[in-house]
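Lecture 7 notes: from sequence to structure.
We start with the chain below.
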Amino acid sequence: MVTTVNIKKYISVLPLLFLCFLVKAQGNDAVTFEMKPSKTKLGLNERIRVDFTMNKDGDNFTPPDFDGFRVLMGPSQSISSSWINGVRSFSKTYSYTLAPTGRGIFTIKQATIVIDGETYKSLPQDIEVTAAVDKPDAEKTVDDVADESLHLVAELSNPTPYLNEAVTVVYKLYVSPTIDVTNFRALDNPKYNDFWSQDMPISKYTTENTTFKGQAYRSVILKRVVLYPQKTGELEIEPLSLDVSLQVPTNRRDFFGGRIFAQASKTVSAGKRTIAVKALPTEEKPANFSGAVGDFKFSVTTSKTSLNASESLQAVVSISGKGNLKLFEIPKLNLPSSLEVYEPEFNENIRTNLSGMEGTINNSYTVVPTYKGKYPIPSISFSYFNPKTEKYHTLNSEEILINVIEGPSSGTVNTRGGAALNKQTIAATGNQFVFNKLTPNLTPKETNYFFGSNRFFLWWLLPILFIPLAILLGKKREAISSDVEGNKIKRANKLAKKYLSAAKKTLGDKDAFYIALEKALHNYLKAKLKIETSEFSKDKITTLLSEKNVDLATNEGFIGLLKNCEMARYSPFSVVQMQQDYNTASEVISQLDKQI
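Predicted structure tokens for the same chain:
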């Protein structure tokens, strides 16, 4: 009976224990969003730092109006995430640095944030501003100093370009001389979905002394990108975010009187930049305009103007200058039907600098005349838009006359119906009719016996001569078959070529292209660095390439390709971006071959 009562007692307690467990779980997952001022009382000549902190990532952050204060800096964003004993800790903070505009008690009102679809508000906070103090900002923290001394800026060469006009984005980090940057890493690289982009790798970071907002600073260029907008209207460039480790001076001194530095970590962002892309004018737009924007020269040349039938010449249609050389088509050459013309071979010699693409592109036609005569290569035109003059320009090539000196003639013969038929005229020679000789001049043929001759003994000696050669070939084959590592490298090289070829065939199909490109890159490294695919990681690849004395630009280019292959699974990639990645892969592999 007692046992039954105890069991009923425990059963009645179970719902209460379960409820406590739920409350604790909800408490662990509860969302917090609060405002934390660095001080609640300050002098008129001091500044205050206000942090809005949340324990879950949110969107659509809306700050208060900050009535009674002037915003000196912000919002700056910092993120902290860690795992302790299997429990994840996350914190995200928006920070502002404020200066009071007068004395009195001011209220910093509520800020709002949307987290998991729900809107959260911070509590308002009263701040008392007194008269100016003798020692302003005595309570300035390490984070305050870091916020004031570190800035990441995206500088645009032209915020209002025309469609397909080059725009250069230079990301600069400005650092105050009072702090030292020890390390940095990119948290999120911007994507340029509405642009054709060309990254310009930086092989060495160089620090320069400059000014920022009227004060002395040091600056370093971290990233350079040349963009060609593919759409009109306002296009946004996503921000570049960095996690920066730095040393900040404090008010404390060591035993020898030197200033003590504190370690700090800050997340800085360049912020979104907007480019207003202008449409090309429609007035006076040539009918043959194919999208060329820049300043160009145009010509049509031939390797020769006089030749015989069945000989060949090269006709080259060439465009050179500055502009979007990779983003338009070369005009086609129109030749007479009596000239046999093969598919043109495309050639390019383009380099990219801060002002955009510059160089030469051309189509080279192989032309073979069939008949004797004179054949004109008619003039063709090329039109482009020059953003400097804001006008369209049309260039015309000169007419070229091809003179076929020797060969069959093409003639016309009139039929009864009056129609003309093309016929080939056969040229007569002087030996068309000759007589057979009636008296032959015959001589007896000498008889040679095989047995006992030199050839007889040579055939007997040949098998004996082949024995040493067979022994050498056998040893060579054994050496090749025993070289397991060499055979693996050869197979990996063949696979790399195979997959790079497969990637070229799948241009336009994003998933298939980047799968094939990633396999090609992996197999190439497998051959060169003699490591298995299972060992691959970006950090290990970077270390191994550095040990092989591969320069920084090539190393970063290879890692960038691997990142693009990963990003392609989740992000839209244009055909132009795929072609760019394919060309980059060819260049990177070529550079690695030269350096490893």
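Points to note: The mean pLDDT is 80. The longest helix spans residues 454-482.
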